[in-house]
Write a sequence for this structure.
DNA sequence: TATTGTTATACTCTATAACTATA
DNA sequence: TATAGTTATAGAGTATAACAATA
């Protein structure tokens, strides 16, 4: 092994590849800092914060399946996380009046407070790490692109994997 | 709990916040698909693939510390992953001639083959999920922005955390 | 039969601290 | 003293499969 040769891989457009790697590295570092901030300011993992924030941003109560959407990729994983959040007094779980199979997860006042406690530092991290080297127009363009990408991903049919929960 | 009120959180500029959330959701979904592809095509975790790809892209051999940079955030975590890669025959570890404290990690032919086996599908996932809804100019701009962000992050001094390994 | 959610279990991964060896 | 790396260990998280209950 003296010099691995990675050329000859079909279908690589250098510009896309560089963009992809830069994006993934930048976001990976960002995620790491965010993880630390959420833990330090709110004693939660990022996943827990996302679930809580999602709940807070959607009216306060969702079924387990709705709550999982896009954040957690297995049912049992959500049950585990919801159990932790409930034990911490940040959400409650109760029966749904609409569907007796469903569980309604409701954010508590303490849960909302926790999100509020975390958010400012959260935004500060994003601003310092992500937005600082970008112009206002960059940010607009980035937001526009990412909204398109996100919607495109949401619309993607599951490929070979078993169909997962979809939003109603 | 009827309707959590998240307003009144200081320092939030709605445009930045939306951009941030769109970015994080899009990348999170992308990471999940990438994880599945790397596992399916190459029987590796994303971290293992990143380590291997980094090694392949940097001339084939790096010290443990150099290899860790930006991918793994603790020394022991890298030792663990390097141990797995070595057991799988994808890298070898040996003493460094320059510094007897260092360990040189060298990618094997099998390691390079593995990266080559994974890359095409990898790029395909990125193209299908990330690049499809973007124009060529979008991609150029995104790449430009992310390169700036990445470099900015690399230049950031560690805040309150203990200083980590830095590239030489 | 399909769907919602939980449980049990096994596995992967990560981080902290203690340790060895070299600079 | 500081740095490179390993080891032991403990904890968090995830996924799979089996299960119960309802649609």
């Amino acid at each position: 092994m003296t010099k691995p040769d990675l050329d000859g891989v079909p279908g690589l457009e250098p510009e896309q590849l560089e963009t992809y790697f830069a994006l993934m590295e930048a976001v990976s570092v960002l995620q790491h800092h965010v993880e630390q901030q959420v833990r330090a300011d709110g004693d939660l993992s990022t996943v827990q914060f996302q679930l809580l924030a999602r709940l807070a941003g959607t009216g306060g109560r969702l079924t387990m399946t709705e709550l999982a959407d896009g954040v957690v990729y297995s049912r049992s994983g959500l049950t585990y996380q919801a159990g932790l959040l409930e034990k911490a007094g940040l959400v409650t779980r109760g029966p749904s009046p609409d569907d007796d199979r469903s569980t309604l997860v409701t954010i508590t006042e303490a849960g909302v407070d926790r999100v509020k406690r975390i958010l400012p530092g959260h935004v500060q991290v994003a601003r310092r790490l992500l937005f600082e080297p970008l112009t206002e127009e960059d940010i607009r363009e980035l937001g526009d692109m990412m909204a398109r990408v996100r919607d495109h991903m949401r619309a993607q049919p599951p490929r070979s994997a078993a169909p997962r929960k979809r939003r109603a």
Summary: The two ends of chain A are 53 Å apart (CA to CA).
